[in-house]
């Protein structure tokens, strides 16, 4: 007798797969700093490392760009937006911000993006959100404050904070643009094609900003110290390009389509936790007690937001925990 899978079971399975992809993306993105820091300490400018990362990934994805060249005619605005905001904007604003304010402060401000995503959903898309979603964001951001130890070395620099906020806004663009075309009844563009052209656009923009012709190319021919252990610079670059960029973007975009921008945004906060743990293990940057507690709080916040969100296409409120908990009153989802 054949066994039929229920719609709810299929939805749970798809949601579980989306969560797994979102976690994989957070881990992949989180590993970029561990590989990039030795290259920077070896003599490469941070913006040059960013350019190598994006340009290298664009080169890897070039065959897919050729294969999906029809997207140039059907979705030119989406491709340009993804390249400008989700690739070049996040990277350029973040690295400019950390030149003026502490890295921890910049990272915390950038990861206000999940809260901004909820604002986009509520006030732009006019979809109701619930207290469960808001609670998840508050816990995740509060936990991040502990992970990055925002209280140490805080310097108020208006331009630096604005640049970090710009990185957060660009990250909102990443989640929102990744979700384009994923609603029922609309044919979604192939995520691999969107990523490929986004990286090409991002590489072109960053070429103007980073000016790679002034880079110390000889650094890539030698090794770079990772907590006292020499590692081939080419190997570190390969990790940044293939894992921390290509794999990270692919799993991240697919995760957004299986979950939703707001949920994937909260889960992405785990990137800071992953980055801190990897720095502890590979770079000898030890975690303090508040950082460990903060990491646990981020996990709790991500779980609350993920577990309380209905399947995509549901008429229920975003991150619905029941009608009585809606923040938006009597709003209707669209």
What do you see in this structure?
A hairpin with a 2-residue loop joins strand 1 (223-226) and strand 2. The longest helix has 26 residues, at 233-258. The chain is mostly helical and 334 residues long. The protein is built from 14 helices and 2 strands; from the N terminus they run H-H-H-H-H-H-H-H-H-H-E-E-H-H-H-H. The protein has one domain (33-325). The two termini are 39 Å apart. A two-stranded antiparallel sheet has the order 1-2.
Which characteristics define this entry?
334 residues; mainly alpha; two-stranded antiparallel sheet; 14 helices; disordered N terminus; disordered C terminus; DMT family transporter
Write the layout of secondary structure elements.
Blueprint: H1 7-30, H2 32-41, H3 46-67, H4 71-74, H5 76-97, H6 103-110, H7 113-124, H8 131-147, H9 158-178, H10 191-210, E1 223-226, E2 229-232, H11 233-258, H12 261-267, H13 270-283, H14 289-307
Antiparallel strand pairs: 1-2
Helix pairs in contact: 1-11, 1-13, 2-11, 3-5, 3-10, 3-11, 5-9, 5-10, 6-9, 7-9, 7-12, 8-14, 9-12, 11-12, 12-14
InterPro entries: EamA_dom, EmrE-like
Region (Disordered): 311-334
Pfam family, one: EamA
